[in-house]
Amino acid sequence: MSNLFSLIDELQSPANEIRSRAEKLLQDTLITGHPDDTLSGIVEVAATHQVEHVRSFALVLIRRLAFQRPDQSNPTQELWADILRHDTRQKISSVLINQLGTEQAQTVRNKLADTLAELARDSLSRGQSWNELASALFQCVANDQPFIRESAWRVWSGVPVMLMDMPIDQLKQLFTQGLQDADINVRLTALKAFSSTLIDSDRSTRIQLSPILVIAFELLPPLATAGDFDSLRPALLTFTSLASSHPVLFEAHVNSILNFAGEIAQTDNCPFEVRQPALELLLSLAEGISATCRRNSRFSEIFIRICLKWLSVRSSDEDWETTEDLDDTPEEEEPAQVGEEYIDRLSTALGSKAVLPPAFALIPSMISSQNWQERLGGLMAIASIGEGSYKGLHSELAKVMSLLEPAFSDAHPRVRHGACHAIGQLCTDFAEILQENFYDPILKALANLLQDPSSRVQAHASAALVNFFDAPPEVEVFEPYLDGLIERLLHLLASSSKRYVQEQSITTIATIADAAEDKFGKYYSTVMPLLINVLGANLSPEFRMMKGKAMECATLISLAVGRETFLPDANKLAELLAVIQNQVTESDDPQISYLISAWARIAGVMGGDFAPYLPSVMPPLLVAAQIKPELQVADDDEIDKDAHPELEWMRMADQNVGIQTSALEDKNTAMETLVIYATELKEHFGPYAIQALEIALPSLKFYFHDGVREAASHLVPQTAEISKLTNQANEEIIDTTFANVVEAISDEVDPTFLGVLVNCFYKLVSTFGLPNLKEPIAETFTKAIEQQLRDLHEKRTNRIQKFGKHTSGGDVDHEDLEMVLEEEEAENGALDEISACLKILDSQSGLLVGIGTVAQMEIGPEWEDEE
């Protein structure tokens, strides 16, 4: 046992080497040789060790080990929990259940409850009941000690299915008892269990339990009155989780929740970490039951007023101008950041009719305020509200511009900075419309701000130009402004003492070149030598990002000016890129992703002449395309976005999954680059075609990033065609390619991408030939299409009932209707692709009749005359 104590101690070591050695010892020696003794010993440590954190860690270790496989690379192997002897499992169960009644330390009790919940969840998923635990929990919930009652509710919150066989009246009585417990911690944990049960139960059970919501809501006001914000915050988060899953439960309570949560969100002496979840609860309702919230005229008014107040919370931080870290936002400005996000989400959820009137009743007075924080807040509101309110705001852009114009010459640099941000965001949200109608005031204002005394303003004006030129008007319209813009950007590149200003100047020049195309030729002889000098310079590591941006700029210019102008510099630039690539030694070097894209652009200009460079560029590209992003799984209360800003959290298979976004983008860039190489180089890409195909096929189901899937859908038929051209397409490759695409079609739920996948299959049939499509694979394809048509038939039947003009009596929410019609249009596109594909497989297929039937089940034509 002493050896086990030391091992557990080393497993918690902050030193990687010690911890890794302990993990290896646990896996190789103890677990492999003596799984029963090891897990029994760890359970004893969890129950009896004198040190609290050791008991906690032992419980975490039990959860981790029980659900591991001896060989973690073998997904078919039994778990350790399955391999243990029956008496060992009985002992573990008995010790943990007994500890539930004796453990005094709250942190350990929480880990104990979580461990029991996970073990119970696994047991029930296998159809095995755990009667001893069920009985113990009911004893605990009747115990005199509140901490014991709380643990029972914590277990139930983690595995609510344990309660679902209870008669509904008894279940209602149990929840009422827990929600009205004398102890606040018990009430809060019972609330979480109640929420978990509602989330996981069927519709009938939810309806029968919904009256208990009134009792649950009664928890909130006393906490606010008492100033018990430590309890109020988790309660609000629990309600938000429930509202996100089943918002319809809250329809009858919207007004009372609006009054309470709205009051909390705008109470200054309430901590922001409580005010934010209060407003998040309202936002969950807006996103989930938008029609109900639109009908409540006070909803948008209260919500917008709170957001605008938060947007004006700005610090007078003297470091704002001098900092080199532009992402470093002062902690006291967190309300402003949240306000931007929430007003954006609200406008997307409720639409312009609900959001614009209350917003623009307040924004003009903010922009004309004597207080610079309010002026900035008004500008940020305009920047945040545009995308979701496009429908109502696009015809009012002249009024919006009149509000913005004075801000470009405001006395305060942060307001001028905010004006750049607002105009840049509007250029994105109202792409082309804004640029075509207001190019003159925008370009003049931003050109002036490139000469601003503030480096932060210079950089942001430069960044706003990127947004403008991402969707520019005709080149003849903006050509007269280019001399002044390029001159000022080159001046910033040459003279600014701030590296971020220089980097942004390079990016902006690149974007302008991309928009100006051959009109950029007059600047080529000035700009390209500067960029080549940057790439050839021996600069310190902090300039790696600048080199990356110089690669991007030089290669975008090469595309803009064309092969003839660029060719004299092509080899020189390629040699510099090769040198830089050979110097990259760190996996997180920012130059890597820039190199991948830069090579792709050069290939686009040089075509087949690029083939000699493939041996240099392909190895790192193939590595990037095969990236498997780091994933983290966490409970709701374990997600720390501040600690892991590099992760994006999403809900998958009832788990919170954190994904490393930079890795996703690198993978996407690599996949898109492979598409370019395959497209431009054709048979010259032959030596890499099969490996690229093998990467692309599983990427069709890479659900973490739509761009990766889109690129894969193009890469599969392209590499298939190249493999045929180069005589590499043997029977195994053909069968595997067809089978993977059919599997992706079978699993697809997005109608837009379903059409893309079917088109991919169509191209494969055209490339390999129908005789090479084996009968079993063709049958699997037919079955997949049959199921997709059944699913579409069911979806459209339900849609007709809810949104059909005649079946609904015309009483539908038009914002919801618009989204439904967009989805219907995507389905029609998929049906067209399916029809085209079936016709080449079997022109007499009975499924063609089914397609016609489903295609006619539209609601769109009924609403053609409606605005």
From TrEMBL:
<dbReference type="InterPro" id="IPR016024">
    <property type="entry name" value="ARM-type_fold"/>
</dbReference>
<dbReference type="Pfam" id="PF18829">
    <property type="entry name" value="Importin_rep_6"/>
</dbReference>
<dbReference type="GO" id="GO:0005634">
    <property type="term" value="C:nucleus"/>
</dbReference>
<dbReference type="InterPro" id="IPR011989">
    <property type="entry name" value="ARM-like"/>
</dbReference>
<protein>
    <submittedName>
        <fullName>ARM repeat-containing protein</fullName>
    </submittedName>
</protein>
<dbReference type="InterPro" id="IPR041389">
    <property type="entry name" value="Importin_rep_6"/>
</dbReference>
<keyword id="KW-0813">Transport</keyword>
<feature type="domain" description="TOG">
    <location>
        <begin position="345"/>
        <end position="590"/>
    </location>
</feature>
<dbReference type="GO" id="GO:0005737">
    <property type="term" value="C:cytoplasm"/>
</dbReference>
<dbReference type="Pfam" id="PF18808">
    <property type="entry name" value="Importin_rep_4"/>
</dbReference>
<dbReference type="InterPro" id="IPR034085">
    <property type="entry name" value="TOG"/>
</dbReference>
<keyword id="KW-0653">Protein transport</keyword>
<dbReference type="Pfam" id="PF25574">
    <property type="entry name" value="TPR_IMB1"/>
</dbReference>
<keyword id="KW-0963">Cytoplasm</keyword>
<keyword id="KW-0539">Nucleus</keyword>
<dbReference type="InterPro" id="IPR057672">
    <property type="entry name" value="TPR_IPO4/5"/>
</dbReference>
<dbReference type="Pfam" id="PF13513">
    <property type="entry name" value="HEAT_EZ"/>
</dbReference>
<dbReference type="GO" id="GO:0006606">
    <property type="term" value="P:protein import into nucleus"/>
</dbReference>
<dbReference type="InterPro" id="IPR041653">
    <property type="entry name" value="Importin_rep_4"/>
</dbReference>
<keyword id="KW-0677">Repeat</keyword>
<dbReference type="Pfam" id="PF25780">
    <property type="entry name" value="TPR_IPO5"/>
</dbReference>
<dbReference type="InterPro" id="IPR058584">
    <property type="entry name" value="IMB1_TNPO1-like_TPR"/>
</dbReference>
<dbReference type="InterPro" id="IPR040122">
    <property type="entry name" value="Importin_beta"/>
</dbReference>
